[in-house]
Give the backbone structure.
Amino acid sequence: MTTDLLAIGATLVALALIVVWWTRRTHRQLDVDPWLPWELQAAKLAYAERLFRTDGPIRISARVDRVYRDRAGRLTLVELKTRGHDTVYPSDVIELSAQRAAVMATTGETVSAHAYVLVQGVDVQSRRAHRVELLTEAQVDALAARRQALLSGEIPERRACADGICKTCLFVGPCRGHG
């Protein structure tokens, strides 16, 4: 009878350890990225902080923050931003679109036509994922070509529509469109 009690006790201890292990494992998985949108909850992190480049006449280099692969094998980009305001800017869409072009060129895989910008407040308490629609590859190529033409002087600069953009631009001094 003592042997039976020991066997039952050992079984109960083993079950308790399995329950504790499973609970911790589940909580760890849920705590990794609780802010992820529903469609990425079951996705796996495919790339993090990795540089991708395109070849060809217009070269694009882009470092991704995160790329997730869902169960169907689709890749989705996530960009992390720390800001005082919960806002997504057009430059975020351009950045993610360039990342998409570079990832597809490097890996040969299809990347979703939408992405997410995770905006974290400076207080670190607030986090929100914003879904954004990305530019097409042709639109990214056109932007890169325009940038190259501006830098080479082929086309003239023009003043930005918002003064704040000109104030923070590295080229405000030599820009003929400023003033």
